[in-house]
Structure formats: structure tokens, C-alpha cells
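Appendix B. Extra example for self-study. Work through it before the problem class; the solution is given directly after the inputs so you can check yourself.
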Amino acid sequence: MADNGLILVTGAAGQLGAVGRTVTGLLLDRGLPVRAMVRREDDRAAALRASGAEVVVGNLLEPADVYRVVSGCRRVYFGMSVSAGYLEATVTMAAVAREVGVNALVNMSQMTVSQMSIQNTTPSPQQRQHWLSEQALAWSGLPVITIRPTIFLEGFFLPLTGPSVRDRGRIELPFGRGKTSPVSTADVARVVAAVLADPGPHLGRIYELTGPRSQDMRGVAREYSEALNREITYADIPPEDWERELKKVGLPEYLTRHLVTMAELNRAGRYDRMADGVERVTGRPAVSVREFVSLHANEFGGRGS
Ligand SMILES: NC(=O)c1ccc[n+]([C@@H]2O[C@H](COP(=O)([O-])OP(=O)(O)OC[C@H]3O[C@@H](n4cnc5c(N)ncnc54)[C@H](OP(=O)(O)O)[C@@H]3O)[C@@H](O)[C@H]2O)c1
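Solution. C-alpha cells for the complete assembly:
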């Protein structure tokens, strides 16, 4: 099977963590040809095209679209937004990848899957779909590399703590005293890009990815304070209040259920975990909370004088 080098990146427009968009940029920087799959033509698609990617429009829930975008590619990054059709999209991708024949399929999953089994699941429909998706990919016999990151700095902490840090100097989350080790999607994307650039040594592996420290939210708040040069405190808010706020801003029920479960698991200490996947694959240590907040200081309301 010839590998002409063209790499497919799905979910490339990027909405929250934007792993696909960052992977696209990193692969292009390495001089590798990328086909970037987006859901629609918009400014993000135009920016991908301007950066040198071949942009294709399609729906990951439409088998004919998936067949069209995978054809001609031998390496694939598969990831998409947290959504109800995740398992269907994964199985569609697996069926197409078997039909077309790929040399490497990098699957975005979640670190919670490491703690799940038939007997031990979670109330998050997304986490259940990732667990089932990993099962289906294992049965498929495809050359899969599994990426299991913990909670994202870009996709969770930035959107969900940015406004209260900006307005009140507080991180307001129902995480109790639970420890957590958030990872930057910039690091996740670096891992994915390194694997796609040279998949051979990684085939069949599972990479768990965390940040460099597991600490409770008071520790996280201290890192925010150091980065922003002003006092940021942690307020442990009641889970029901948080859920009400998520509903008020109009998040879909499916996503809300997932976020509420993430908070429950954080509170229960289930996100107190450390893994060395970032350093092992990229040779560089994972970005810390302090470095991340410093890099995004404006979005957190700027630095104190
Ligand atoms: N957030 C976290 O803390 C966390 C932690 C660990 C793992 N994860 C996993 O990371 C993944 C999300 O990664 P991310 O944050 O990088 O994603 P993202 O930025 O939300 O981007 C995903 C892209 O998928 C596209 N998409 C959605 N449905 C599609 C469809 N039916 N057909 C084609 N494209 C579609 C979206 O397009 P539009 O923008 O046009 O809608 C979006 O740009 C999920 O698997 C999630 O479970 C997340």
C-alpha cells in the first residue's frame, strides 16, 4: 500500500480545544501535506487554506463524505466535538478506513477511559461513547494509536473560568478539594503531530496525557495568581448552581451532562492522575497552568501592575 504522505485531519476548523487545527499547523510546519476536513466553508476554512492545507468540507456522520475525504490519505487524525453522534462517527470512520486501507489512525479519546470497564462506567454519555469507540476500533483490526488526554486547559479552563477570573478574580468550579492535572491542547496536538509524522513506532500504543502537576484548585488558583500578578482565589461552588449556569448560557443538554460528570469526577478525586505521554512522545515537558495562563493573560483579564 503506497503512502503518498497526505495526512487527513478531521475537526480541523477547531471550536474549543482546536486540537485538529493545531495539528494541521504543526504538520504543515514540518513540510507534510495535510487534507483538513471542516464542516463548512467559513473564515476558519479560509485560514486553513491560506496556511497551505487542502481543505475539504464534509460531515463525519455521512459515510459518503467520510469515504471521499479519507480516499487518498494513508494517515488520519480522527477527532470531533463532544456530541451525541460520536460513536456513529467513529464506527463510520473505522468502516471507511478498513475499506480504503490506512497505515495509521490516531484516535482522540479521554483519559477517563483508562478507569472504565464493562462494570465501571460513568454517567457522561461522551465518556461512554469514547469507551465504546475504543472497543470498536480494537475489534476493527486497524493500525490505531489512542490519545487519552485529561481535562483541557483550552477546552475547559479557558472558557469556563475565564469570565469569572476576568470579572471577579475567582475560579468558580464545583471541584471541591479534588486534585486535577489539566493538559494544554497545544501539547496534545504536539503529541498527535509527532505520531502522524512517523506512526511506525507508535502503532497500537495508548498515550495518556496530563499536565506536569496534580493539585487541588487552591494550587491551581496560586498558579493563576503568579501568572497574572494579582490574587486569584478558588470558590468551591455548589454543583447545582454550576449546572444551572451552564444551562442558562444555552449549552446543549448532551454537553452539559458531560461537563457535570467531569466536575463530579474531579470532586471525587478521579482526575488526580499523572502521565508522562507528552514528554515521552515530544521530548518536551508538558505546559504548566502558570505558563498557560501567562500565555493567555488577556483572555483572563490581563496582568496586575
Ligand atoms: N475538553 C476537554 O477537557 C477534553 C479532554 C479530553 C478529551 N477531549 C476530547 O477532545 C475532543 C474534542 O477536541 P477539540 O476540543 O480539539 O475539538 P473542537 O475544538 O471542539 O473541534 C472539533 C471540530 O469538530 C467539528 N465537527 C463536529 N461535528 C462534526 C461533524 N459531524 N462532521 C464534521 N466535523 C464536525 C467541529 O466543527 P464546527 O466548529 O464547524 O462545529 C469542530 O471544529 C473530543 O473527543 C473530546 O471528548 C476533550
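Self-check: Residues 11, 13-20, 39-40, 59-61, 79-83, 108, 110, 126, 149, 151-152, 155-156, 185 surround NAP (CB under 6 Å). If your reasoning did not lead you there, revisit section 3.
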